[in-house]
Amino acid sequence: MTLAARLRVRMAAGDARGTVFLPGDDIDGVEDMRGTPAAVLFAITDRAEPGVLLTRRTETLRAHAGQVALPGGRIDPGDDGPVAAALREAEEEIGLPRHLADVVGIADRYRTVTGYDVTPVVAVVPPDLPLVPQEAEVAKLFEVPLAFLLAPENHTPRTMIWRGRERTIYEMTWDDNRIWGATAAMIVNLARRLAE
Questions:
Q1: What's the chain's average pLDDT?
Q2: Looking at residue 73, what DSSP letter applies?
Q3: pLDDT of residue 64 exceeding 90
Q4: Is residue 64 part of a domain?
Q5: Kind and range of the H or E element at 7?
Q6: Is 112 contained in some domain?
Q7: Does a structural domain hold residue 165?
Q8: Distance CA 69, CA 55 (A)
């Protein structure tokens, strides 16, 4: 069975197992916060030991400067839903040709504390593509082993104060890359969905 086929099966089984997912950041106790629609791409490389493509945002960006993120952004009016948006953003940010992404499913939506309602799109991509990060947005493109990201022992909870409130976030570190906040939470959700 191919990696894409295995992921499709495991994605579909996630809800059936009664898995508890992180719904998003609790913003002043409002559970049904309507955020700006956005989408990100979990680009999983099709190799014996699959990896996930992540970016480090440039320090000059207004929002989330220097943070590790999945390729993605707002869903534009011209996008035909979150899948199209995630593929467009990945092509713009890291040069990933849309036609090379084999979309296997939609992961669990996540509301960010900064007001985005993010739909993660999961796709399998060929390994070792000659990807070129867009310099204005992406300072670094790197790949983290999927097994590392899915392992619960690497999902470290941390407490922080944001706008005067104590919040618990997740964090994981790969080499010198601190993966935290919404990106880490979406990874935790994917790990829970794909758990066997």
A1: 88
A2: E
A3: no
A4: yes
A5: helix 3-13
A6: yes
A7: no
A8: 5
